[in-house]
Amino acid sequence: MPPHIDTESAPVPESTPAAAREVMISFDDVSKRWGDNEVLRSLNFDVKSGEKVSIIGPSGSGKTTILRILMTLETPDTGLVTVNGETLWDVKPGSRPKETKQMRATRRHVGMVFQQFNLFPHMTALENVLEAPTRVLKLDKEEARQRSVELLEMVGLSKHLDHKPPKLSGGQQQRVAIARALAMRPKVLLFDEPTSALDPELIGEVLNVIRELAVSTDMTMLMVTHEMRFAEEISDRVVMFDHGSVVEQGPPGEIFKAPKEDRTKSFLHAVLSH
Amino acid sequence: MSDVITYAPLLLQGLLITVLVTVLGAILTVVTAFTAGLARLSQHWWLRWPAGVFVEVFRGTSLLVQMFWFFFALPFFGFQLAPLTAAVLALGFNEGAYGAEIVRGTISSRAAGQSEACVALGMGRALRMRRVLIPQSIPAMLPPFCNVMVDLLKNTSLVSLVTVADLTFRGQMVRSTTGQTTAVFLTILVLYFVLSSLISLLMKWLERRFALDRRPKSRRDQPGPLVKAGMPV
Amino acid sequence: MIWDSEFALSILPDLLQGLWVTVQITLAGTVIAMILGLVVAVIRFSRLPVVSQLFNFYVQFVRGTPLLIQAYCAFFILPNYGLSFSPMATGIVVIGINYSAYTAEVYRSGIHDVPPGQWEAAKALNLPIGATWTRIILPQAVRSVIPLLGNYLIQMFKDSAVLSAITVFELLAHAQAIGSNNFRYLEPLTIAGLLFLLVSYPASQMVRRLERRLAPAH
Ligand SMILES: Nc1ncnc2c1ncn2[C@@H]1O[C@H](COP(=O)(O)OP(=O)(O)OP(=O)(O)O)[C@@H](O)[C@H]1O
Ligand SMILES: [Mg+2]
Prior knowledge:
Chain A has about 270 residues and is of the alpha/beta class. Chain A has helices at about 65-70, 100-105, 125-135, 140-155, 170-180, 200-215, 230-235, 250-255, 260-270, and strands at about 25-35, 35-50, 50-55, 80-85, 85-90, 110-115, 190, 220-225, 235-240, 245-250.
């Protein structure tokens, strides 16, 4: 069932061209290493408000790490990260940053959809979605409930409100997870390979939901994916990543049809020849 | 405090009795555990059943009730046991019953695959048990047996209640003569803690030895669930 | 005839009263052990520098010393400092504290088994740390260790006999009193043992069944 997003709960994109909009996410000289393994090498990277960006690149190149730093699940070694103009990380070399009030406030703008869904197994689909709005945003119970039901309807799960995750298929679980992330009204939504833990026949239903979000909302979306065709279709910009830095980036047509860098060419060749 | 030091030799005597009871109890525990544990794995019902009843009775009732029973009730059958004997019997049988479940659980958890290999080699039940299953299971038994031995040590304090003059018994004596309640009890509390830590260290050392003697263990050599579904009770 | 059935029957009501006291001690002790153990487990898990180590030692020490001596300490020492309670109250608190060291370990293993993704999802939703524990982590952790907790509950039931040494008038103390008053120990002690068995055996069978039922979850 194709998801339907009612335009009242999600604003339609403004007609401002992406280039003219303000910066939503910025990485400024961010580095991260695990022992000898340099995962991010003084990364500089911006995402504009409302922009849909796909990150592609070989395994181990640091794609997940970028998202996890944005979600504060990982700590950068050095560098400045801002979201919505507010500081998320400001780490001087050699210091061990702690979680601050500022960080928690900034993190509110960010939501994340995980590769392994990470739904709460002891709660029903509805409770999963309802949890954060009632506990964190302290929304009125009835209002939050209504909105959660709407979100689950939007991802095509109105029949499964009271089912617990173990009873749902992988595709259904991931759609609940998307609804759960949306319930916090994030300005930025991160997707880490949202379909790679799914059986092939279930990928489509999740991609449909993400596509719908991409075309009908103004959310900033940053997605790591191996679904090249999908990335080409929905992205404003594709970023090719390798060895902890940006190899090349540009509009999907450019990157997929006429890549400049050899590394991009060989990566695309390897991925697309399957 | 100085009063307590005057009585230190008395406490030391008690400590020696505690160690003695622990050692005797440990021997009986191991013997009981293997006898009852292997009997519960037997193919003969007349071994399995009595062993099952023994284990459930000794695990299902209080150790102190058992100790009192051996000391106060057994004389009605014409057996008057010395306090030390009654105490060691109760301790060994009680902890042995817990040990029996460890023996049974660890052996039966690896029995399935290994037994088939043994059958394929034409090994009989007894040979299979003696040469393959028991030796393989020993390393996995050691950590749970460590808990049993620490429990045993702690439970030796109960022998004071059937008049065995162990550390607890002497402690009570010194307390009532000196009135130095706090000093005496904190002293013996620490002594028991030292003893149980020593037992843990000893068991850890045994674990390492057995791990070195045999080939490196795979992840799956962890102790299995103590009770397996469908096992004969 | 060694066994005197008439005598046995006549003392049964008295022993059943003792059993009821034992059950009460166990239930009250369980409440303390479950709550205190949970608090200790969470504190140990949060890795606060000194505090965590302090509670590690607490668990080690309580597990490394006999219940009887702990009971003596509470019973004989505390009144010297102006803290006197009834034997029953003392006994309940001592056995509750004693078992909290065990339940703390049980909870710890349960918390440890909750997948890291659950912590991450809670953080991604900006759930505060308190709600993360109470709403997400603990419900999952506790559920998986309920059978283990059940086993400790049964163990506590049997261990509570030790409290007769500090004059708590529970099942074993009743049996002893009957024995010394009548100079017959066989019947009261045997019946006391059977009563312990009568409760603990079916209870442990129930825990086993629960274990099998909860096993496939997660
Ligand atoms: N907790 C960790 N400890 C040690 N190394 C880590 C840890 N997390 C990630 N790494 C390493 O950092 C590198 C980058 O990891 P990352 O998960 O960001 O890669 P990725 O681009 O998302 O790869 P994939 O496509 O496989 O998901 C990898 O080499 C990985 O082994
Ligand atoms: Mg990744």
